[in-house]
Amino acid sequence: MEAVARIKNCPMSPRKMRLVVDNIRGKKVGDALNILRFTKNEAAMWLEKLLLSAVANWEYKLDGAESADDFNLYIKRAFVDEAAMLKRFRPATHGRAARIHKRRNHVTLVVENRVPLKRDQAHEAQEETPVETEE
């Protein structure tokens, strides 16, 4: 089972965010959290919150019956898209105006478990058993 968490319009350029996202893609959740806690970029702070949100979403999908620690969660997909750019003007020399581009991004994290869930195993077992009908 997978869970998704997104940040929209994060006030940072996509290029800066991708540098940190590339470090955690495909890693276990615990390892990724350690990487993010000891990374000095501002992007790491945003991604740490997002990763914790994705884990909470995963637990919520199971109605809080299962703990994320027992199922070996990992980051299945992580990507950064460019958002709408804010365009501003700043005074420049000789009475000109210089354009400022304030870039933003959208981040998406998908978390999935490697250990199968108990309810998935029970569901598969029910499908495999033949149904007996009375004649």
Can you characterise this structure?
By secondary structure, the protein is of the alpha+beta class. The protein has one domain: Ribosomal Protein L22, Chain A. The chain has a three-stranded antiparallel sheet. Helix 2 runs antiparallel to helix 3. The longest helix is centred in the middle third of the chain and has 20 residues. The radius of gyration is 22 Å and the shape is elongated. The model has no long low-confidence stretch (mean pLDDT 88).
Tell me briefly what this model is.
This protein has 135 residues and is of the alpha+beta class. It is built from 4 helices and 5 strands; from the N terminus they run βαααββββα.
- Give the full name of the CATH homologous superfamily: Ribosomal protein L22/L17
> What is the helical fraction, as a range of percent?
25-40%
User: How do the SSEs run, as a string of H and E?
Assistant: EHHHEEEEH
- Percentage of residues in DSSP E strands: 25-35%
- List low-pLDDT spans: none
Q: Which of globular, elongated, flat, extended, rod-shaped describes the shape?
A: elongated
CATH architectural type: Alpha-Beta Complex
Number of H- or I-type helical stretches: 4
The count of strands amounts to: 5
First-to-last CA distance = 39 Å
Calculate Rg over CA atoms.
Answer: 22 Å
- Give the assembly state of these chains: single chain
Q: Major sheet: size, sense and barrel closure?
A: 3 strands, antiparallel
CATH fold-type name: Ribosomal Protein L22, Chain A
Structure class: alpha+beta
Q: What is the topology, as strand order, of the major beta sheet?
A: 1-5-2
Query: On the 0-100 scale, what is the average pLDDT?
Result: 88
Number of domains: 1
